Amino acid sequence: MEKTKNFKTEYQAFLQQYPYRTIEVDGTRIRYQYGEKEGAPVLLFFHGLEMQETWMPYALHFGQNYRFLIYEYPLHITNVDEQMAFTFALLKALAIRQVILIGCSDGGVHAQIFAKNYPEVVTKMILITTLTLDSDYLRHIKKAWFVTPLLLLFLKLIPAKTEMNLLLKKCQGFLTCESPEGQAYGRTFYETVTSDLCYKQRYIHSVKCVSLLKDYPVFDPTDFAYLRGKIQVLIPENDIFTKEDQARLSALFEKLDAEILRAPGGHMGFVVQAEDYMEKIEKFLARQ
What we know:
This protein is α/β, with parallel strands linked by helices. 46% of the residues lie in helices and 18% in strands. A hairpin with a 2-residue loop joins strand 1 and strand 2. Helix 2 packs across helix 12 (274-287) and helix 7 (160-171) packs antiparallel against helix 8. 37% of the residues are buried.
């Protein structure tokens, strides 16, 4: 009988192979993982909900032919342009001159902003289960901005264990469209992330950062003209984002000859069905 997959077991082995390092950049100390094939192109991962653990299978798979950089966002920076400036400074500190961006969820928006702000270092961009700034999702956040301080206060006041249990319950809704095996594996993913009670601070930071995206100006195709033909967009069949927002994302990058593909599952499909997503990404990178 095939052994049931367990994200926690896999991630513990990953940390043994690629333990966190620390580095100080502009007076801020953060943790990061940087490794694999020496001298190869660098994959820079931007993660949603500050769950950098999502990239474990991608780092293992693409580490055969690439280097990868996964890092924890500095918690005192919430302005997105300042976040991206910190990322650029981190690349300089690690002597990384060029990167291939891979971003998921709100991390996909971060990837787009980084690509707009620092074209000199970006060679390709891959966007997974995300949207762009011209979206009903962010317009809804803008309309509801007045409740954000109350939400943040609530998140700060409740015990970390209670908050993580609530988050775990909410996130399991992202798995309803997956197979029973996928749902079980996805639950072990969320259990792994939320078992670290320090994640509470990361989650609160994520809420702050996403709420501030509401005021960022929408993109124009000319912002990414230098990446024509070098962009891939993977859209899940059953994402949490609406079909209209998916269409707006596609429309932005269709004008730049992007490869836009449907992918299986929902918002967490790229974790529980990572093999399918990695196959699409690998083919895209091989053609470049």
